[in-house]
Each structure stands twice: as C-alpha cells, then as structure tokens.
Design brief:
Blueprint: H1 2-12, E1 13-15, H2 21-31, E2 37-43, H3 50-61, E3 74-79, H4 86-93, E4 96-99, H5 113-123, E5 128-131, E6 136-137, H6 142-153, E7 159-165, E8 167-170, E9 173-178, H7 181-194, E10 209-212, H8 213-216, E11 221-222, H9 227-239, E12 244-251, E13 253-254, H10 259-277, E14 286-293, E15 296-303, E16 308-309, H11 316-324
Parallel strand pairs: 1-12, 2-3, 2-5, 3-4, 7-12
Antiparallel strand pairs: 5-10, 6-13, 7-10, 8-9, 11-16, 14-15
Amino acid sequence: MLDEVAGWLRRRSWTAERRPLSQLLAAKRAAGPHGTVSVVLPALDEEATVGAIVTEIRRALMSDAPGAVPLVDELVVLDSGSTDGTAAVAAEAGATVVHRDAILPRLPAVPGKGEVLWRSLLATRGEIVCFIDADLREFDARFVSGIVGPLLTEPDVQLVKAMYDRPLEAGGTVEPTGGGRVTELVARPLLNLHWPQLAGFVQPLGGEYAARRSLLERLPFPVGYGVELGLLIDALNAVGLDALAQVDVGVRHHRHQDGQALGRMAATIYRTAQTRLARGHLVRPVLTQFERTAEGFAPRVHEVTTEERPPMMTVPEYVRGREVA
C-alpha cells in the first residue's frame, strides 16, 4: 500500500505553477461545453472576507474584468442563512448570490455546510464545480486556477483537492503549522487506518476542491462538516485513486474555531467515517461538552448529525434542469 500511495503522489500531486493560465485557457477552449467552470463559495456570516475573495476571482479569472483570463464562467455565493451583510457584500463585489432556502424549496433545508454544497449543484451550470471556503484571508486566485487546472488538462482526473500550509494564528502569535488540528487528530488517523489509499492527501478536510459535475451528481452529500471526508471516500469508491489528485497552492489563512467547535467537527467527521464503514449498523450518537457556569460545569449536549442528501441524479428537479440545458 505504501508503494501505491508513493506512486500516486508522483503521478497526481502538482503545484499550481505547473499549469500557467495560458495553458488552462487553451485547454478550456478545446474542451468546449465540457470546460465550463462554476465557482461556489458557501457562506455563513462571512461579510469580513467574502468580498475580497469575490473581487480577486473576478479580477484574475473572469472575462469581464480588465486583463483577466476568462477561466471562470460563473461565481456563486451560496448564503446559508447569514445574519450579517454577507449577501450584500458579495453581490456588491460582483457575485451571484443565492440563498440556500431558495433552492429546492419543497425540501426544507437543514443547517450544515454539506447541505449548501449539495444544493449548489442545482444553482450552477458548469461541468466543473469548484468549492472555495468564504472565510479565507489573503486570498490568491490560484486557489481556483490551481485545482481547476488538472480537470481541464488531464481527462482521467475527476476530483482535485488543494493542499497548503495552515498556520495557526492565535493570541497575536503565528505558528507556521498546526492549523489543521481536526485533520491531524481525527481525519488523518481514520484515513490511514481504514482507507490507506487516501493517506497521500495533505489536506483531506480542506474546503477548496474542484470536481467534475458528472462525479458530484452521483455522490451522497453529508449535510454537515463531514462532507469533505465523505466526498473523498465516496469518490475513491466511485472512480478509483488515480482519478483523484491534489495541487499545492501555497498558504491558507482563515478564521480558527474554538476548542468546543472543533470537538463537534471531530465527532461529525468520525461519525461520517463510521457510517461508511458500517452503514445501517450504528446508533445515531450525541456529543456532550461542558461549559463553566455560576453553578459549576454544565453539560451541553449536541446531536452529531449523520443525515445525508442523496446523489443529485436522483432529484427530479435536477434531472429536468439538465435535460433542458
């Protein structure tokens, strides 16, 4: 297995600089309709960062911006219920803003990142779909071009994850590594133990990845924070290791969660893995955490969500929309 992972790393790991924009644009033109690119930013109360991300993508990668390479065909911010100015800031910066609840209204939405990503397939038209988290700072457009590149130039590649350094920024200090705590403590051990073919992914939980629509529409989407792990495992099962790849895009700066939020994320990710190891044989669990109050430590119980949305190809509205298109 170690030899298989090492071979995959040589064949399917690249840097963003490996494919210049001129090469990507030529490949996009040659691909015709199959080279259309949609960028989706799932957003919940991200007014502080979403505008700069939209502005940079439009400046560098969209055809109506002066000097831009027209690599991206549509840029959609999927608002999952923000109470701040996220939607207004994103729209002012030039994104198409769609509210989660406006998509597939017959099916009430549930909270969670995966829910928004799943619904975004109904709100976009590109044959290549690129997801970018909306809380990134110091954003560089190569986060998009880097992970879209292999899908335009390598016909056998189906899904591409970004890899990067994740500094840990807290209390006014910056550690060059250490920002991926749930990755190192939960996701990486799970993958190495149970899906060792995926051990070569540097950032398996990263929110920046691109995939062919023809793959995404066949996969179930965990509705919560387990979505990245679930999609990666299910993509491996659907198309095999050599159809998966990763691209080094540099450094990722973003907001860090507190310890209890990380605990909830870790439990959800662990449960997502359990579901894939033994579907139908596990009890839906809860996570108890503690908060100090005037009376002492008080328990706070959180459900660990295991709900998933089915492959988009099973949703009639999606199928009808694709037939019309």
